[in-house]
Design a protein that fits this description.
The chain is an alpha/beta fold and 335 residues long. Helices cover 29% and strands 27% of the residues. It folds into 2 domains: 140 residues, Medium-chain alcohol dehydrogenases, catalytic domain (Quinone Oxidoreductase, Chain A, domain 1, Alpha-Beta Complex), CATH 3.90.180.10; 141 residues, NAD(P)-binding Rossmann-like Domain (Rossmann fold, 3-Layer(aba) Sandwich), CATH 3.40.50.720.
Length: 335
């Protein structure tokens, strides 16, 4: 399949980089020259770039990057522009997407390990896959590996109208689960319910634990997924049935601090998992499996929700939107 030009030239790329950790203002526009792709690499020209909360963690230094300065971003879709000397599985002009490290998607073009490229079928749009490939792989991990979801299970999704929440809600419903979700406003409740959420809890107005217990006849949910952290995680632990599971997948509200094991049991007898999707994707077969599962869900009707599309140069504003909690669904950058 490869159509490599032996005289591939270097090319310019626009990037959003950080030289130091800090607030959104540390994101600055830079220009760079990409060398021809090396062995094992391709050059991809981006058409849509996903913004994820892990980008905020990279920017602030909560999650370490290999070095600084660094280009942020771990998800995008685009077109293969050039091939390394040994690439035979892809071709120039082919549409691909990718998710996960190495960071560097906040750019008009980049060189990428060819093994990370996921070929896109014609019926999956660039914006759709760029908005949720990482979240799709995360959802696959959460519902297949961390906890094997069964039809009839009841799931609690914290922040059900967020980018990850809306994917989990739809995916879990497609698997036959009953889904309860927390949201901040009636508008977000309406959005999540339009995506299949069975019950919305307005966490600013209701006691979440009491509401969950009321909805489950005092039993608690089988599985709870919490990307909020902080005090919310402590509440989440109180929403799960004995021998159920909590997955902690983020800390938007900050760290919960050291957890006393008595919060898990023996009285409650619940399990707590702290899974990382980047660790999950270090296994190439799992990465490809999760990506294929995401594409199947999209082809079967999974609806992406894109709350905002901003120019690449406005990446700092995209981060501010994400951190404000005002966004619904996903945020994209357009090169």
């Amino acid at each position: 399949m490869g159509q490599r030009d032996p005289f591939i030239a270097a090319t310019a790329t626009s990037q959003m980089s950080i030289r130091q950790h800090g607030d959104a203002s540390v994101l600055v526009a830079t220009e760079a020259v990409l060398p021809p792709p090396a062995a094992g690499e391709i050059r991809v020209r981006h058409t849509a770039i996903g913004v994820n909360y892990v980008d905020v963690y990279h920017r602030t230094g909560l999650y370490a990057l290999p070095s600084l300065p660094a280009v942020l971003g771990v998800e995008a879709a685009g077109v293969v522009e050039a091939l390394g000397p040994d690439i035979t599985t892809l071709q120039v002009g082919q549409r691909i997407a990718y998710a996960g490290p190495p960071a560097g998607s906040y750019a008009s073009a980049r060189n990428l390990p060819a093994a990370r490229a996921i070929a896109l079928p014609d019926d999956v749009a660039d914006d759709a896959v760029a908005s949720l490939l990482l979240r799709g792989i995360t959802t696959h991990m959460l519902l297949t590996y961390v906890y094997r979801l069964q039809a009839g299970d009841t799931v609690l999704v914290q922040a059900a109208a967020g980018g990850l929440g809306l994917v989990i809600v739809q995916w879990a419903k497609a698997m036959g689960a009953r889904v309860i979700g927390t949201v901040s406003t009636p508008a977000k409740a309406e959005l999540a319910q339009a995506h299949g959420l069975d019950h919305a809890i307005l966490y600013r107005d209701e006691d979440v634990v009491a509401a969950v217990m009321r909805l489950t006849d005092g039993k608690g949910v089988d599985y709870a997924i919490d990307g909020i952290g902080g005090k919310t995680l402590l509440d989440t632990l109180g929403c799960v049935r004995p021998y159920g599971m909590v997955a902690s997948v983020g800390q938007v509200a900050g760290e919960s601090g050291p957890l006393d094991l008595s919060l898990l049991g023996p009285a409650r007898s619940v399990a707590l998992s702290r899974p990382g999707v980047f660790r999950f994707m270090t296994d190439l077969s799992r990465y490809q499996e999760g990506a294929a599962a995401t594409l199947r869900q999209l082809q079967a009707g999974l609806q992406p929700t894109i709350g905002a599309v901003l120019p690449l140069a406005q990446a700092a504003e995209a981060h501010r939107l994400l951190e404000s909690g005002a966004t619904v669904g996903s945020v994209l950058l357009r090169p």
